[in-house]
Write a sequence for this structure.
RNA sequence: GCGGCUAUAGUUUAGUGGUAAAACUCCACUCUUCCAAAGUGGUCUCGUCAGUUCGAUUCUGACUAGCCGCUCCA
């Protein structure tokens, strides 16, 4: 990798998501999925330019992460894996938090954190009767709160008899007829709570002809488990030794409750993940920091400006129990600073889980100590779609341009790094009714096309063609003009997208520029 | 999943209970010697499904989608 080659965007008005979405559609980057049927929430299609841009992001990552490193290998695992993978990983249990809504206050509670108890009163004749219900949120003294609430309930309703001790249960244990009688903690009145509903974020499907419980399988909610499950295969066949990484790019699926912010959170998305395995005694925090720095440098290499990037270290008390530390690289989107790339130190949790669940040890042998151990792992995980959105947001600019007559107009430009720009060069004959210009332009176009994504355009005035390319982020336009034909040297006009400056270059100089900038 | 607002051409918008428009874009042709030139012509539209009505893009309802706020993001 080298340093960023794209200049930082000029100070312009804040990017509006509406304008960005409009451009994405107008120029064929992103369409809503199934649009002619009214759209489908949480799913997106990538158009001709979007597919190119996305592929370039993927290819750059793969080249830098896998091909240009000696310590990382790539794999591609199946989207549907054995259901036990997701039991071992904790996703089946972790995804099933049932939630309860209060229809009046619009508050939402986790059912396992909302407790209730029947208020049972024993009358003078010794008959116990349930006279109502009380509820309380989970706290250090849930039972005590319920007891106090029950006493208050009995006093308010002026019920005679002896109050029995409360029996705290959480809402997941409530019967349907009980839910109607349990008061909402928000309003204190019964009748507004919904039954607990499980929001399992994994998409389910069935494998094979049978659709009974035994055939249930899941679309993967992350690609990472593929690397863990294939760990031994790679170790045994890949001639790798610690420390080393296994990387994968692929689609993942999560049944998000609220997909939002364009492609930022969608239900089908593409991940680029890498599991970097290290010795159990290695200094994980040093490796962790190295990977964070690597990820930041990589983001800059594809044109994301430093000014939009920041770090967020997850507070220790909020980490998942198996995590030793997680740092997110954040990006300043128009809708807020949001997570772009998570770099997690996961210890040996995943491999240990799979070793236990499968009964197959996931260990490597240490020649130095003659001992076996389960490696620890550092995991940088990033979404392709989030990077895609980030480069659009960072690159999009509406500039005021003044022509020689003094008229000011708006130029919409997408400042994409040459590394990822969907079109690297546009080849333009100055005039399309001059055969000599067209012929030279076609020849150059054909030659460039063998190595690069290039675009040929002879329609409309030259200025309009430049602006079209500005909007889709093409870094350079090459114009074949009369000087090309009439003057010695066979030079073209090379027009730079960001500066709008023009200079003359030869074919060799053009190829040298591309060789240097597009990698 | 809840609430509020919204839905007319590729984009941004006007408009109407009686066969729907503007600007820009896009395409073709003419023209054009470097930054969205001009002329002519052209393609494309009332989110979906019902209801009311002689007739619905317009009124009503449901649905779907979008934005905003909650919630959620293991």
């Amino acid at each position: 990798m080298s340093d960023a080659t794209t200049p930082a965007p000029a100070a312009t008005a804040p990017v509006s998501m509406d304008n960005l979405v409009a451009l994405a559609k107008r120029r064929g980057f992103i369409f809503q999925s199934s649009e002619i049927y009214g759209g489908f929430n949480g799913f997106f299609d990538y158009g001709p330019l979007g597919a190119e841009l996305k592929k370039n992001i993927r290819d750059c990552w793969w080249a830098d992460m896998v091909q240009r490193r000696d310590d990382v290998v790539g794999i591609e695992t199946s989207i549907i894996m054995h259901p036990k993978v997701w039991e071992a990983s904790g996703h089946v249990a972790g995804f099933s938090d049932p939630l309860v809504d209060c229809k009046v206050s619009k508050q939402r509670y986790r059912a396992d954190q909302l407790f209730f108890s029947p208020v049972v009163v024993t009358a003078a004749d010794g008959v116990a009767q349930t006279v109502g219900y009380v509820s309380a949120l989970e706290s250090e003294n849930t039972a005590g709160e319920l007891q106090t609430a029950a006493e208050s309930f009995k006093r308010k309703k002026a019920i005679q008899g002896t109050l029995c001790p409360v029996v705290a249960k959480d809402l997941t244990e409530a019967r349907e007829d009980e839910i109607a009688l349990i008061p909402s903690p928000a309003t204190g009145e019964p009748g507004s709570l919904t039954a607990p509903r499980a929001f399992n974020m994994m998409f389910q499907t069935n494998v094979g002809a049978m659709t009974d419980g035994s055939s249930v399988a899941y679309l993967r909610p992350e690609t990472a488990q593929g690397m863990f499950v294939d760990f031994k295969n790679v170790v045994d066949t890949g001639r790798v030794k610690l420390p080393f990484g296994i990387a994968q790019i692929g689609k993942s699926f999560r049944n998000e409750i609220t997909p939002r912010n364009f492609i930022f959170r969608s239900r089908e998305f593409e991940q680029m993940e890498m599991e970097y395995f290290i010795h159990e005694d290695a200094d994980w925090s040093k490796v962790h920091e190295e990977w964070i720095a690597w990820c930041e440098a990589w983001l800059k290499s594809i044109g994301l400006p430093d000014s939009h990037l920041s770090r967020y270290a997850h507070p220790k008390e909020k980490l998942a129990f198996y995590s030793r530390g997680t740092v997110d690289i954040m990006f300043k989107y128009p809708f807020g600073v949001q997570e772009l790339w998570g770099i997690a130190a996961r210890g040996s949790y995943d491999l240990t889980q799979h070793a236990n669940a499968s009964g197959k040890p996931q260990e490597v042998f240490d020649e130095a100590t003659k001992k076996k151990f389960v490696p620890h792992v550092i995991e940088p995980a990033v979404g392709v779609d989030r990077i895609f959105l980030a480069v659009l947001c960072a690159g999009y600019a509406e500039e005021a341009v003044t022509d020689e007559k003094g008229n000011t107009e708006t130029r919409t430009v997408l400042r994409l790094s040459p590394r990822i720009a969907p079109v690297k060069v546009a080849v333009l004959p100055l005039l399309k009714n001059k055969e000599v210009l067209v012929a030279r332009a076609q020849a150059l176009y054909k030659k460039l096309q063998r190595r690069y994504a290039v675009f040929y355009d002879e329609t409309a005035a030259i200025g309009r063609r430049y602006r079209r390319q500005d909007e889709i982020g093409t870094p350079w336009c090459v114009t074949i003009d009369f000087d090309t034909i009439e003057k010695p040297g066979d030079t073209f006009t090379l027009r730079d997208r960001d500066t709008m400056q023009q200079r003359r270059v030869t074919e060799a100089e053009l190829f040298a520029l591309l060789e240097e900038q597009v990698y």
